[in-house]
Design goal:
Elements: H1 2-23, H2 28-50, H3 56-83, H4 89-113, H5 119-142
Helix pairs in contact: 2-3, 2-4, 3-4
Length: about 140
């Protein structure tokens, strides 16, 4: 059984090392981003269950998007090392962009679940969705 505790020690070490590299050090924004990603996945599952549209392909795309965001944060960290002498400028921008993206997705999921929200948030969400739909329509016309 000691091999199991050894395995867990290795896994904690590997996950901790990756987190340390991505964030440069423990950073509240990265922790909040990971928490928001988890909330988004759970709220997305609830929305899918409510609408009877639970599909592994949709969830797989969402998780791939989240992995892409984390890779973009790694990329931004590398750019900071190269250009900014390690100052976390690009990484911070990427983390905040990802936090905004996750927050918007969570609000969309809560809205679809019927969670009461202030009218200002619902109105702004409707504007964002309308502009997103318009951009997608224009993109489809071009291709």
């Amino acid at each position: 059984m000691s091999y199991l505790s050894n395995f867990y020690c290795w896994m904690v070490g590997i996950i901790g090392s990756i987190t340390e590299f991505v964030s440069g050090h423990y950073q509240n924004a990265v922790f909040i981003l990971v928490c928001l990603m988890l909330i988004d996945v759970v709220s997305g599952l609830l929305k899918g269950a409510k609408n009877k549209r639970l599909k592994s392909a949709i969830m797989q795309m969402g998780i791939m998007k989240k992995a892409g965001m984390l890779l973009a944060i790694v990329f931004a960290s590398l750019l900071d090392i190269l250009i900014n002498d390690g100052m976390p400028i690009f990484r911070t921008l990427m983390v905040w962009l990802a936090i905004g993206n996750e927050g918007l997705s969570i609000i969309e999921n809560f809205n679809a679940l019927g969670v009461p929200m202030p009218a200002q948030i619902k109105d702004r969400l409707a504007q964002v969705v309308a502009s997103k739909t318009e951009l997608q329509r224009e993109k489809d016309e071009i291709s």
